[in-house]
Each structure stands twice: as structure tokens, then as C-alpha cells.
Amino acid sequence: MKLLDFLSYAAGQVTRKRMRAVLTIIGIAVGIAAVIGTVSLGEGIRAQAIGAIEAQSDLTLVEVSAGGGGGAMHLVTGARAQAIAGLPGVDAAAPLVRDSFASERQTYLAVTGLGAEGFSAVLSPSYAQGRGFSPGTNEVVLGADIWDTLRRYEGVRLGEPVTVLVRAYADTGSPEDRKIVLVPVGVLRERGDAFDTAVVGDISFIGAVREREGHYDGLLVRASMPAAVFPLVDRIESLGLSATGSFEEIESVNRLMDMVVVVLAFFAAVSLVVGALMIMTTMVTSVYERRHEIGIAMAVGASQREVLTLILLECAVIGLIGGILGDALGIAFAWLIDAVGKPFIVAALGEGFAGISTTGITLVTPLLLVFGVVAAVGLSVLSGLYPARIAARQDPVEAIRSRR
Amino acid sequence: MIPAIEVHGVWRRYPPAVEALRGVNLTVDRGEFVALVGRSGSGKSTLLNILGGLDRPDEGTVGIAGVEVDYADGNALVALRRQTLGFVFQDFNLLPSLTAEENVAFPLLFNYQGAGERARRASTLLEDVGLADRADHYPREMSGGEQQRVAIARALIADPPVILADEPTGNLDTRTSAGVIELLRQINRERGTTFLIVTHDPEVGAEADRTIEMRDGEVVA
């Protein structure tokens, strides 16, 4: 193939001035290494932070609620709840209703009504004491924190009925409290989320406390695995509903780290620009030195386009070698950051990031290495455009007459 | 018979005041071995560059191998240099980074030939010019006469009907010159290749079928 022959000829040209080629290649490689090293630091910190979130929170739990897209309110109707339950990546889904009651001593109670089956399918609750609520009854389970409050200050005990107040409004608009009775039958283990302060009861009972308009207040969804969460959220949002959950923490970490990585990479890229300018200088010099030879090539039948291609291919060869070397140097650089910088960073971040001390603070992804080579080749070819044009636009008569 | 080279009323001016060619007319028949002589500045090299498509005339027409050269069409000029013409220069103009065989094969890089075919044809031609044992030598390792033979083989690689030579013996001693002229003549006889040779060398003139003389941008004989 012609391009392959051109490439091998161009590679031969690059190796003619060995020292110069090596220096130019090092120039671009250092730039690539700087970018890879700094970006790997950002990616490493991102991975650590996301790992910490995944370890500490219930990532696959997503709560769906009504969304207001495009001026219209999209409610969690029975049909939509069923549609979401049937989406790929969904293990279980449970519609819910919400209400707020108060204890007789005015402790605020955030009440969630769920189907007993859905409750155990989505949340797999484990109980510190007691058991789950039975369907169709006024039994409830309490979150760890609210149980603590009620037990300590209001003398609530498991199995004993508790009277709570439901704030309602008379036709005249004046508030009037209704009394209903709940029976706490279980206490959830501490979860580290909103369920610690929640009172959970059967949806048919809680939902009947007030008149409702035929839709749910939300839908709890259990995704099959962490990787399924983001695509699932996209689908839910495309239905016009909104989704919340621990995944939002990951989103915000990603947003933050995107910024950090871009800023880091920007500064590292300055050295890449220097590398590109080196290639341009080298190639301009090289083209002037070889004016005579380029003239000969034109005399024996090389077209302007072919001369241009040959010079650009020389740049691509320099970029390819520089990119591969830059990847290797970048990996070494990342290793150096781990070895030298880690103790400082661990000390600064404290115990919460202790995981870092066993793994690394840098992360060199395959994509980053591919980017390194592609960027090196692309930048080199770009830098070669000007010298290549000089070469291609020579007057062959002048060029042949000129001596080295 | 269609002439190999046909030049009609060619003018070439270099502003402001130089008129390098002043209405040149000449015809070289197919298979002719022609010497083009004249003093420095008589316009020989300018004419040769125009025939080779490296320079363009301000007026007049040029036909090579029966086709009128369109100097505005870059692709046509490239095709002319690739397929119809071979060049031999005074100072050989080999590429120093390539071996003899690679130099001979070099034009085929632009002529869409595979590496194997290029090497095969180059090695055959090196044999024809008597340098089979020099195939892997670089130009700096060869004598002037050997370099010129390599350059001649390179000019022949696309088997062009016409070869333009600019002082091919100008940098060679008398004995070596005789060998090179002999080689050119032999190629002319065996292949029927048309030669137009710009020269100061009386030996070339003596060997030529015909001598064209230029003076002050005009053909005088």
C-alpha cells in the first residue's frame, strides 16, 4: 500500500538526524507525561472519593418523585410506576406515599407508606428489634434515630399502641388535629440515610389517612448493580420524573473532579504546547536543510500533495514514538506521585481517606493512555502543517539549484 | 511520425529586463540523440526546465511525446515527470540517505508500485548500468561516474520515452565521461529513448546525431 511505503520512507527520514529526533521526541513525551501524571492524580482522587461513597451509602437505591419538566407536572401514577418497574436494571420497585404526623408531645414524624412486600424487596430491612409491619394493619417500624427519640422522651415501647396527631384543616380553613393510633412493632438498624428518622407503615393504611388523588408520592427503586444506576436515572428523567439518591453524591464528585482534572490538565498542557513548538522548529529546519532533496523528489514525480503527506507522516512518526514514550514516562510520573506525594496527601485528608494508603492516589486508565498517543500524534501533525506547506510550495527549479 | 519534443515560439521572460528565451522553435524526433550547446546564459537550462515542466513559458507551446503540455494543470505536469520524462543532472542529485538501489527505485514511490516490484526493477536497471555490485552502497561511497550511472538508472525506472540531461558529464573526468556518454548512447540505441542533452562537452557533441546551438535565447543552428 502506498501510504505504508510513504510511512516507512518517512520513518527512515526521521532517524537520519538521530540526536535531533530523540530530543524532539523527548520534548513531546515530557508534555504527554505531564498531562498523564496530573490527570492520573485527578482520576485517582476521583476513584477514591467514589469508592468511599459506594462503601458508605446505599448506591443502588433510587427514589423517584414527581417531576416538573416543560411546564407540566409529571406525577408518579400507577402506570408510570409499573413502567419503571419494568425497566432494564431494575431489581425491585415499590410505590410509596408520604405523610407527616406529630406525636402527642409534638415530635415531628416523617411517615412513609409502603407495601409490606415492596418494603422488604427494595430495602431488605434488617431489624435491631422486633419485626416488620403486617399488610393492612396500623403497625409501623421505626428508624433508629426516631426510635431513640420516642423511646427516651416519650416512653414509647414496641408492641404498645401510640396515639399520633394528624394535622388537618376544617372547611373553614382552621386547623384541627385528628388522632390516630399506630403500633410500633420493629426498629430498623441504623442505615445512614433518611430512613433513620422515618416511620414506615403499610401503604393501604397510611394512604387512607387522608383523601388522595389517585397517584403516589414516590417510588423506591432498587437497581441491580451500581453500574446500572446512571442509565436508569437517565431513563427515569426522560419520563419527566425526578430521581434522587446517593448517586447524586457521585455526580457532584464527578462534576468537581471534572473541573479539577481540566484545570490540572490545562497547566500540564502548557508543556505539551512547548513540545509542539519544538516539532515545528525541528521540521522547519529539517525542511530547509532538505530543500534540495525535496526538489529532486518533485523532479522525479512527487506531487505537492505527496510532499505534504511525507512531511506530515514524519511528524506523525515523531508523535507516535513521543506518545508511546510519553505514556511510559506518565506511568512513571504517576508512580512517583504515589511514592513521594502520598504521605502528604494522606496526612492532609485524614482518616477518612485511609484507603489511599493501601492503594494509590493516582489512577492511569487505558483511556488516558490512548488519549496520550492520540494527542501526541494529532499535535505533531498539526505542528507539521506549516513546515509541510513550506516544503510542498517550493519552486522545484530553485530547490534543485540550492545546495545543502 | 510524431516528434518526441516540439517547441513552438517559446518565450520566457524574467522581469524586469531578462529575456531568457526569445521565440524558440525546435523539434526532436523520436529516438534522436541530440546535444544542446551554447554559452552560459544562452537559455539552455531554462529551455530544459520548461521541457521538464519545472518552469513555464510566457508564450508559445511545448509538446512532449505528442501531447501538448498544459502548464496550468499541476497534475498533468506531475504525470509528465512521472511517466514521460527522465532527468539526469550535472551533480547527480542522488538522495544521500538512500542506497543506490533505493535511489533508483525512489520515483516509483510516487508511481504506485509495490515495494517488491520497485526493488526488482531497480536491481535490473542497476545491472543494466553495470552497478549490480553497488546496490547497497550509499552515494558517498561511490565515485562520480558510479553516481551518475545510478542517476541514469533512476531516470529510466519508469521507462520514459524522453530523457532530459543537464550537463551529465560536467562533473566527471574525461575517461569517466566517455563511459557515461557510451552508456547514454547505448540506452538510446537499445531502448529507442530520445535524449536531449545540454552540454559543453565536445565529446557529447561528437557522439550526437545532431547538435542544436543556442545563443541569447534563440536557436541559431
Automatic annotation (TrEMBL), chain A:
One of its GO terms (molecular function) is transmembrane transporter activity. Keywords: Cell membrane, Membrane, Transmembrane, Transmembrane helix. The keyword Membrane applies. InterPro entries: ABC3_permease_C, MacB_PCD, Macrolide_Exporter_MacB. Residues 266-396 form the ABC3 transporter permease C-terminal domain. It holds the Pfam family FtsX. Its main location: membrane. Residues 22-238 form the MacB-like periplasmic core domain. Belongs to the ABC-4 integral membrane protein family. This is ABC3 transporter permease protein domain-containing protein.
